[in-house]
Every structure is written in structure tokens, then in C-alpha cells.
């Protein structure tokens, strides 16, 4: 590979990297709105379980 070909490959690679970075920045900055109907689905759930309810379910499953 001569010097001209090497320079061409370097320039094309640089352009590809710049376009790739620019597209990622654009994608991250684009605002995505969520429909109000879906806002409830995005809220966190309570990670704490009600032990009484779990015991009741366990007893119902174990008894024939």
C-alpha cells in the first residue's frame, strides 16, 4: 500500500468515526415523549412484599 492509498484509508476512517459519533450524539439528544397512558407503567414498583399475603398464598398452595 503506497502513501496515497494509506492517506485515503485514514481520511475515510476519520470521516466514518466523526459521522458515527455525531449520529450517536444526535440520537441521545433527541427527545422522546411518552404517552400519558404509559406513564403509570414507567413508575417504580414497591420491592417490599407483604409477608402475610405470601404466607396465605403458600398455605393455599400446600393444602389440597
End-to-end Cα distance: 79 Å
E-strand count: 0
Gyration radius over CA: 28 Å
Low-confidence segments: none
List the SSEs and their pairings:
Elements: H1 3-29, H2 36-42, H3 51-62
Word description of this protein:
It is built from three helices and no strands. The protein has 64 residues and is mainly alpha-helical.
Concise overview:
The chain is mostly helical and 64 residues long. The chain is 72% helix and 0% strand.
Task: Based on the model shown, name its key terms.
64 residues; mainly alpha; 3 helices; elongated
Amino acid at each position: 500500500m503506497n502513501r496515497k492509498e494509506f492517506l485515503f484509508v485514514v481520511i475515510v476512517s476519520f470521516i466514518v468515526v466523526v459521522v458515527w459519533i455525531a449520529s450517536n450524539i444526535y440520537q441521545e439528544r433527541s427527545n422522546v415523549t411518552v404517552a400519558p397512558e404509559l406513564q403509570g407503567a414507567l413508575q417504580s414498583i414497591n420491592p417490599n412484599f407483604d409477608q402475610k399475603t405470601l404466607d396465605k398464598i403458600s398455605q393455599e398452595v400446600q393444602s389440597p
